[in-house]
Amino acid sequence: MNRPSLHDLERGVPFVDRHVGPRPAELDRMLAVIGADSLDAVAATAVPDSIQDREPVASTLPPAATEAEALAELRALAARNTVTVPMIGLGYSGTITPPVILRNVLENPAWYTAYTPYQPEISQGRLEALLAFQTAVADLTGLPVAGASLLDEATAAAEAMTLLRRAGRAKSPRFVVDADTLPQTLEVLHTRAAPLGIELVVTDLSGGLPEGELFGLLLSYPGASGEVRDPSALIAEAHERGALVAVAADLLALTLLTPPGELGADAVLGTTQRFGVPLGFGGPHAAYLSVAQKYARQLPGRLVGLSRDADGNPALRLALQTREQHIRREKATSNICTAQVLLAVVAACYAAYHGPDGLRRIAERTHRMAAVLAAGLREGGVEVVHGAFFDTVQVRVPGRAEAIADAAHDRGIALRRIDADTLGISTSELTTVAHLEAVWAAFGVPADAAALDAATDDALPADLLRTSEYLTHPTFHEHRSETAMMRWLRRLADADLALDRTMIPLGSCTMKLNAAAEMEPITWPAFADLHPFAPAADATGSLQMIEDLERWLAELTGYAAVSVQPNAGSQGEFAGLLAIAAYHRSRGESHRDVCLIPASAHGTNAASAVMAGLRVVVVATAPTGDVDLDDLHAKIAEHGPSLAALMITYPSTHGVFETQVREVCDAVHAAGGQVYVDGANLNALVGLARPGAFGGDVSHLNLHKTFCIPHGGGGPGVGPVAVAEHLVPFLPGRGEVGAVSAAPHGSPGVLPIPWMFLRMMGTDGLRRATLTALVAANYVAARLREHYPVLYTGAGGLVAHECILDLRGITKDTGVTVDDVAKRLADYGIHAPTMSFPVAGTLMVEPTESEDLAEIDRFVDAMIGIKAEIDRVAAGEWPVEDNPLRNAPHTAACLVDKWDHPYPRDLAAYPLGGTPGVHDRKVWPPVRRIDGAHGDRNLVCSCPPVEAFA
Ligand SMILES: *Cc1c(COP(=O)(O)O)cnc(C)c1O
Q1: Which helix (H) or strand (E) covers residue 221, if one does?
Q2: pLDDT band, residue 286 (cuts 50/70/90)
Q3: Most distant CA pair in the chain: distance in Å?
Q4: If DSSP codes are grouped into helix, strand and coil, which group holds residue 753?
Q5: What is the pLDDT of residues 345-388, one digit of tens each?
Q6: Cβ atoms of 300 and 269 closer than 8 Å
Q7: CA-CA distances (angstroms) from residue 96 to 83, 276, 348, 703, 779?
């Protein structure tokens, strides 16, 4: 009888059938359009022999598990973690994610599947949330310009350090840092300073600044020890000596303390983790950086600004340096690309939900708990080191620190073990009187909280108490009931086009399915509530998950080892290049400092190379789009003994499998250089070929592209660095090379996502996904080729996982630009592809394996519809300046206004008439096309006064 076995029935639908969009019959239709018989035939034609694995690859990745099985396995790992009450401090605090925010943002695909808001007309919702983030940071820190998040506090400190150096006039290479700075911040500062020739002077500043010149100063407020000192005198002294000053500050403390901006700081930085973002064993969390107005243009990362749309209405967009690495490359202010947008949104919502009075109350609770805790300890004869503190009490207990910390741990509380004689105890929004009593008990101190409370003053310096207002904007007052918050979040999400409404065919960014089974575990308390510096014995489940993931990724890429520490692709690049530089140094070849980078490379490559202390030399692109081999050989000959590395992206940023990649790698190796393969395009390779096997010495991967971590509207990201055997000692944070992130494992809070993905796909599923992605890209190319030229192709006329549609000829002939096409797609309810990268005037399309044929066809049909509209412009039927493309996107409001355009309103709103999938999925952009230049000229990057909207 032809029926499935009991075993098959029991297993149900394999996850790969959920992850991969096209059904078998659809795939056959797609294959027919591209003229191939099977997935394997596509692989055989498109993927060069020279890079394909010749033998099956040994793998410890187990066969695919079902969703239920994988969740059960991961749950068992989670159960091995021990979550304690986090009183370790060190920049990571207990916090409560308000359930309305947990559910409606963190667990809501409308928020987590959004892309970076490069198309602002369909991103007004997250831009509004990010503007609230910037406003909260600016208000609390007392400096007017804050960006829309950095990766973590330690890297934010490093960004502040380089900002002060760029912005200041001092020529000195010295950067003075208060010894009372978080240890992980100090480590990252060391890693980042060395290659740039910055001399770090870490010193006790209680007696004033050290002798000698300096360009900048970093203070902590409060310090890592918890002590609150008035930074004004040091700031003034630094300014007198021509240096600029950054202050690392705790945002919650700033609701009670005078903000550093009012005390003269030039920049303020820190984390917003304690604004409702789960600990997650270290991340992801949004860091912040705010600066004085005159340094606005120096700010790294993304900045949301107010501008106006074509009808003169206020509208938000990314301001200034939006894609500055792509434009400025090795001259960029920083390599930051993906940031921590989703977590910044959570923090902004937390600020809006609690409002200024709510935040102040949380701060008061936190502070009072610490003050009463300290009083009880003092009364019990324990030496409390500092008199002024916000939430952290440092105590000296000669010889007893371990025993006391163990006793606290037995009571379910984790303290900071500083040394044999010293402990740190930090309070938070989570701290209760019962926790205080448990801590007192661990110290063997009897204490009565109520009596102590009555008898104990605050421990904040009286002359540092905050007097200025903050969060006065209505945003921080109008969403204080849960109903109001829920509706605000829904309204914002509805303004945006995320993956839950349309495919986002972004070349180079791989916007694929972020499956619910992958997402579910990230908010399990056993993962979410783990402190990054919890004792290893409390984190065995998470550590096992990380080890599995690192091993699986190493196998899939053909490398010896992987570190998940880097918090984005950019940080993986930096770590990988540091490994290369350290390797050369270890062989007495520190003179090797030239990094060859093809002209078409992602902008972060050049920016990262500069951060790693390398000199960027550009290699030309041949007319085929491949690396120009003659130019490569010439550059190698020219720089031979100085050659440190070549960074290439594979498949190329042009979306093509270059056949000569082995030859390129060999040439670099022969000259003593190392090969860095940018693995952000791994979606075309997983299961087919491994960069570590075809010539790479190091790669970074983007888990937020190929491995399903959602884009979050511009982060979180995870950019693991993968290295060959000889570079293993040079992985970040393992001795030879310092840490590149604050937390030892970067952002473990989102690592369940790729773990689940790999566990549910298995090697066969991964290979099927990759091949399906290749078919989808080639299908798009095949269907659109007669309407738009496809710029580059490889063997057999095939592209890899993405294709570039060349609009330059169309623009030249008709005046219709890529911008016009991208904005018109919004009228069709579809998110635009990548615009003008890697080639200006083109669109790069990456459908991924997750989109089914109907959705891909919806996109293709829209593009064909747009081409027909372009043809009408070309034919002179509509003027170049007044047609549905140039006027796109159209809001409902503009249609009901007076109408004097040469095309009808229904065509503006419903471009393909009654076409199903377009007509019935109509999306109304909330604003018309936004005037970018206006916003840059009139920079407004915090919530505008309400009158602006009148
Ligand atoms: C996305 C991308 C990067 C940068 O990754 P981030 O996580 O945004 O820092 C680098 N190289 C390529 C080719 C990319 O597509």
Answers
A1: strand 216-221
A2: very high
A3: 90
A4: helix
A5: 999 999 999 999 999 999 999 999 999 999 999 999 999 999 99
A6: no
A7: 15, 5, 14, 27, 47
Instruction: For 56-67, write each residue's pLDDT tens digit.
Output: 677 889 999 999
With pLDDT > 70 as the criterion, what percentage of the chain qualifies? 98
Pairing of strands 413-419, 85-87: parallel
Q: Phi and psi for 873 in degrees, rounded to 5?
A: -65, -45
Which residue out of 577, 702, 750 has the highest number of ligand 1 atoms within 8 Å of its CB and is therefore the one to mutate? 702
Structure tokens at 426: 């930090």
Question: Does the beta carbon of 338 lie inside 6 Å of ligand 1?
Answer: yes
- From CA 708, how far away is CA 716, in angstroms rounded? 11
Q: Round to whole Å and give the CA distance between 261 and 290.
A: 9
Opening angle at CA 129, ends 126 and 133, nearest 5 = 130
Look at residue 401 in the predicted model and tell me its pLDDT: 98
Which residues does residue 803 pair with via DSSP β-bridges, in sequence order? 845
Tokens encoding 510: 């791989």
Our answer on whether the CB atom of 508 is closer than 6 Å to any ligand 1 atom is yes
Q: Which residues of 540-565 are buried (b: 16+ CB within 10 A; e: fewer)?
A: ebbbebbebbbebbbbbbbbebbbbb
User: Does pLDDT of 322 surpass 80?
Assistant: no
Q: Is the CB of 678 under 6 A from ligand 1?
A: yes
234 CA → ligand 1 middle, Å? 39
Residue recorded with tokens 């980078």? 597
Helices of type H across 13-93: 15-19, 24-34, 39-46, 67-79
Return d(Cα 128, Cα 773) in angstroms, integer: 34
* Pairing outcome for strands 643-649 and 674-679: parallel
> How far apart, in whole angstroms, are the C-alpha atoms of residue 246 and residue 244?
7
Atom of ligand 1 nearest to the CA of 335: 9
Q: What's the token pair of residue 432?
A: 């209760």
Instruction: Report how far ligand 1's centroid is from the alpha carbon of 42 (Å).
Output: 26
Distance 8 CA to ligand 1 centre (A): 40
Q: How far is CA 763 from each of CA 273, 313, 677, 852, rounded to the nearest angstrom?
A: 36, 51, 22, 22
Query: Residues 597-645: pLDDT tens digits?
Result: 999 899 899 999 999 999 999 999 999 889 999 999 999 999 999 999 9
Three-class secondary structure of residue 79 per DSSP? helix
Measured in Å, residue 709 CA sits from the centre of ligand 1 at: 14
Of 770, 870, 888, whose CA–CA distance to 824 is shortest?
A: 888
- Is 151 a pocket residue for ligand 1 (Cβ < 6 Å)? no
CA of 678 to the centre of ligand 1 (A): 8
Rounded Cα gap, residues 758 and 523, in angstroms: 19
Burial string for 734-757 (b: 16+ CB within 10 Å, else e) reads eebbbbbbbbbbbbbbbbbbbbbb
Beta-ladder partners of 123:
496
Look at the block and give the residue holding tokens 């030309």.
Answer: 620
Token pair listed for 575:
């770590």
Contact 429, 363 (CB under 8 A): no
Torsion sign, CA atoms 796, 799, 803, 808: negative
CA 133 to centroid of ligand 1, rounded, Å: 24
Residue-wise pLDDT for 885-937, tens only, equals 999 999 999 999 899 999 999 999 999 887 777 778 899 999 999 998 999 88
Q: Cα 615 from chain centroid?
A: 26
- Report the C-alpha gap between 643 and 750 in whole angstroms: 37
Q: At what angle do helices 540-557 and 67-79 cross, to 10 degrees?
A: 130
**Closest C-alpha to ligand 1, atom 2:** 680
Minimum CA distance residue for ligand 1 atom 7: 569
pLDDT at position 59, please? 82
Q: Provide the residue count of the chain.
A: 950
Tell me if 93 sits within 8 A of 267, measured CB to CB. no
Dist. CA 943–CA 765, nearest whole Å: 47
Please work out whether the CB of residue 717 comes within 6 Å of at least one atom of ligand 1.
yes
